Amino acid sequence: MTHPTTAPPPRTHLDNGGSAPLHPLAREALAQALADGWADPRRLHAEGRRAAALLEGAREAVATVLGARPPEVRFTPSHTASLHAAVAQVSRARRRQGRDVVVAATERAATLHAAEHAARQADGRRVVVPVDGVARVDVEGFVAALGADGAALAALQHANGEVGTVQPLDVVHAAAREHGVPLLVDAGSSVGHLAVPHAWDVLAADPADWGGPAGVGVLAVRHRTRTAPVGPEDPDPWAPGGVSVPLAFAAAVSLQAVEADRVAQDARRRRLVERIRSVVAGVPDVEVVGDPDDRLPHVVTFSFLYVDGEALVTELDRAGFAVGSGSACTAATLEPSHVLAAMGVLTHGNVRVALDRSTTDDDVERFLAVLPGAVARVRAMLGADGL
Amino acid sequence: MTHPTTAPPPRTHLDNGGSAPLHPLAREALAQALADGWADPRRLHAEGRRAAALLEGAREAVATVLGARPPEVRFTPSHTASLHAAVAQVSRARRRQGRDVVVAATERAATLHAAEHAARQADGRRVVVPVDGVARVDVEGFVAALGADGAALAALQHANGEVGTVQPLDVVHAAAREHGVPLLVDAGSSVGHLAVPHAWDVLAADPADWGGPAGVGVLAVRHRTRTAPVGPEDPDPWAPGGVSVPLAFAAAVSLQAVEADRVAQDARRRRLVERIRSVVAGVPDVEVVGDPDDRLPHVVTFSFLYVDGEALVTELDRAGFAVGSGSACTAATLEPSHVLAAMGVLTHGNVRVALDRSTTDDDVERFLAVLPGAVARVRAMLGADGL
């Protein structure tokens, strides 16, 4: 005898920026590497050498995709740890040349905080360059900051993960090279989605963003870029105590996999994003934010007037859809997004949709079918219905 | 038609200190948590809340075993990261009370380096207290250092992972409390093998040592112990960017599992270690090091005269046995062990056997059958046979 049951509503995850479900090949690679690569890769025996070989294989695979040499690639404990370590170690090595750290206003919080910390350690300043209304950095301002006396390091994202806008790396990197200032490029929202940029001295990429596992970060440091460790002595100043070999291996395998069908996924997801933009534009009192063209292929962000972002995320969650919000991005920091604030756009009522490789046309149509109703319900709850 | 094949020699892993194969339950837990807990636990939607619930469940399970309250437990990227963060953050919070860091000479390299770094940051000193011939700390010297003006923090291992010796934590912690100096206890080689100690203010434990995954560390900080972050601002100063929820969950599940049969494993592995000690004592010119009684149940270390440790590890590896060596512990640092040096015992020709829960009587007998011959062959190669 079976009990009557209510099937749980199907879940559709549209919050795939920074934490996507594991790519199927990442899951297989992880299982394989847990069996073969559990040992300490620094040990001399066969088990240790096998783990070391897996780690080296992962390094080579990542290097090939990033356009780097294998010794230039480091694994770290997280994307945040990558950004912290890169800012600290490059600026420490450059202290004689400069004490200031130049950043765009829409850099990730980890970069902004690391820049503040490094500048304070050096008795220097964090120089924050503004962005325009689509989040594109003020290039003249950035180049001027690079040329000013005292710049130890500059940081500029490849693409912003909240609103999708791509930054003009080529012109900024050319200016940085001219002034001898290393450029840290946070490609944590773009690697696996856009072609990997060439214009960088230090490049940070985030496996959790491309369907690899959380708990490991990827950092490439050009051979010519000097670094100096800042913490206690350790054989690996980028990941004291080492990283998980299985996670690094799974990160590399999934990177190869997503790079292999990146162009097809780009076209498919751009088309879905266009479809979302066209339907959302029909909802009253909405603003789609970020650059409409030069952007990540899978991210679209919009802000609704008279709506609380957290309430809308919760309402969509009840309907079976997981989305992000710049105004309630995490449970820990219920603060308006510094990215939206820097752009001068609405910081409330914000929703970000980030499509996974596995997101289907049907997923998107079902989402678009419930979105206007969800917005209306939240507006009604807030008594803003008749405004 | 089948080709005649030579079966690869069976492998027996007897280097299970700090990196053991995954416990079967850890593997199951990891697979479950990869399916259920891949999302960012700080997100507000159902996927994020489920990851957060797994992480909180892991925290509660670890807290129960460690005798701590759940909010006292932090997950870090590695055991080394735990020790670095604990030394840095506790000593930073205590700068008004003291600038020196007191350590035993046989602490892990990560602790020694973190103490050196923290003392230098504070313009203080690292005070290294000597040990005796079995690696037991000079208690009078340690207590005197605790009572001297300027101690910000003291660190003492529960048990040494290289030679097994247990430290007198109770008397040292009583003195530390009397002088108001927080005591950091590195239990990275003992949790899962010995009863968890009670005498600590900060306790570090290593999942990779008990059959959990590498890539995550465990740290418990008593509520009364003050800490101050030292790096860039981050929601989690113990693990900037967060840790892998699946790894933390697998660490917790495997800790519960090994704690459940710890007493039975203690008796079984002590008996096997006694058997190894008795056979090894029959090899000419050998010294068994560490305390013969008050020690880890699964670790035994011996040094052979006229033998190079690295050569012996390699010879045993060829015969199918993975062991560690204090004189060739890692491929990265081919330096004599600072632990053996501090004890004043032979630093060359050193072999450490660390038995896994899965190590059988037969594994040990096969190892003991090949060990004397391997030692003789290495001695012959070195021309020391006739000495």
Report on this structure.
Chains A, B: One of its GO terms (molecular function) is cysteine desulfurase activity. Chains A, B: Residues 1-21 are annotated as: Disordered. Chains A, B: It holds the Pfam family Aminotran_5. Chains A, B: Residues 13-367 form the Aminotransferase class V domain. Two copies of one chain form a homodimer. In chain A, helix 9 (309-318) packs across helix 11. In chain A, the strands form three sheets. The first copy, chain A, has a seven-stranded mixed sheet with strand order 2-8-7-6-5-3-4, sandwiched between helices. The longest helix of chain A has 21 residues, at 46-66. Chain A has eleven helices and twelve strands. The first copy, chain A, has 387 residues and is α/β, with parallel strands linked by helices. In chain A, strand 3, helix 4 and strand 4 form a beta-alpha-beta unit. The first copy, chain A, has two domains: 24-260, Type I PLP-dependent aspartate aminotransferase-like (Major domain) (Aspartate Aminotransferase, domain 2); 262-381, Alpha-Beta Complex (Aspartate Aminotransferase, domain 1), CATH 3.90.1150. The first copy, chain A, has helices at residues 24-36, 46-66, 79-93, 109-121, 139-147, 169-179, 245-260, 262-280, 309-318, 338-343, 361-381, and strands at 12-13, 73-76, 98-104, 126-129, 150-157, 183-186, 202-205, 217-221, 286-289, 299-304, 321-322, 350-354. Chains A and B meet through helix 1, helix 2, helix 3, helix 4 and helix 7 of A and helix 1, helix 2, helix 3, helix 4 and helix 7 of B.
